[in-house]
Structure formats: C-alpha cells, structure tokens
Amino acid sequence: MLDKKLVMLAEYAEFHVNINSVVGGGFKNPNDALVIGNRAIELGFTSTIGIIHDGDGQLKPLAGDEAKVYYAMNHRRKINYSRFDHFQEAIAEGRPNDWRCRAGSRYLYICENGLVHYCSQQRGYPGVPLAGYTTADVKREFLTAKSCSPNCTIGCVHKISYIDHWRAPQTSMVSPGVSVAGRGRRRLYW
C-alpha cells in the first residue's frame, strides 16, 4: 500500500520530496526504515534517517538491529536538503553532544495555545504568549545554555542551531522541566 502511494507521489509531485525514516524506541521491525529509504531513492526522492527520542526528547542509544539500520542508511551516498546531521552519530552511540542549542531564539516551538516553548519536549519554557515574545527574549535565549542539550535528539533544533556552533558563547543556563504531550503546534525558524 505504501509503495503504491510513493510511486504515485513520484509521478505527480511538483515539489521536492524527502522521505525521513526513524529508528529507535523498539520498533518491531527497524529494517522497514531501510527498505522504505532505499525505495525512496529508487523513485528519485531524497531519504534521511532520524533517531527517535524518549518522552522527554532525550537520548536513548540504538540497540542491535536499530543501529545497523541507522548506519546503513546514514552511510549511503545521497543528496538531500541538509547534511547537518552529524550530531546523530553520538546519539546512536549513547554519547552526549557538545553544541549550542538556540531554541527560543533561532527555533521557536509554538503550541496550540499560542505560547512559545523551546521545543516540543520542553513545553512550559519559557511558556509565554507569542504576541508578547520580544526581541529581548530572542536575544536572551540565544545566549542561554539549556541543561537538556547534551542529550537532546530534536533534529530540527540541532540543524537550525548548527550555524552558530562557533559563535556567541552561551553565558547563562536554564534547566527546563519534563515534557507535556500536545498537538496543534507550529515551528518558526529565524
């Protein structure tokens, strides 16, 4: 059923299509990600691989077959929209990443109630209405290190923060709490 939909998408899509597969979290058959990723490339799409996080958006190392699938997909020669995914190698091995999370600055997560949060997993921080989120807030969060960042697996935050790895050291620290499940969210990138 999925293959028929991919074939139809390849035939009719008038836009770039990337198929992102996810491994981790004990999926019944992690090899499905590799099969789908390879089929996507056969059909002319790009294909990427992500690693699922635990309920708090934190690191959970890949086990056995999950790791094999991740490395098989990650080491294929492919062209995709972004190669800012080297952080995933540490995640796959259960190691923390050394990076500057710019959530709350370059990346905003806005929930269904119109509140700004660092990301989907750190709802409540800072938890203020978008209408009241100022340039001063953006600048403050740009310089704020998040205690959850070493073990973070949130790819979109990593990717948007990547360009700032070498600049503007973070001079303050915050320890966000645990996540709250939610729907109806939007992402904004600066």
Number of strands: 8
Which class best fits the helix and strand makeup? alpha/beta
> Beta fraction of the residues?
15-25%
Q: Main beta sheet, described?
A: 4 strands, antiparallel
- Bin the helical content: 25-40%
Order of helices and strands: HEHEHHEEEHEHEE
- Tell me the strand order in the biggest sheet: 5-4-3-8
The geometry reads as globular
Task: Name its key features.
single chain, 190 residues, alpha/beta, four-stranded antiparallel beta sheet, two-stranded parallel ribbon, disordered C terminus
Description:
With 190 residues, the protein is an alpha/beta fold. The chain has helices at 2-12, 31-42, 64-74, 87-92, 135-142, 155-161; strands at residues 18-23, 46-51, 107-110, 115-117, 126-129, 144-146, 172-174, 186-189. The strands form 3 sheets. The protein has a 4-stranded antiparallel sheet. Strands 1-2 form a two-stranded parallel sheet. It has a two-stranded parallel sheet with strand order 6-7. Strand 4 and strand 5 form a beta hairpin. Helix 2 packs parallel to helix 3. The longest helix has 12 residues, at 31-42. 30% of the residues are buried. Residues 178-190 have low confidence and may be disordered.
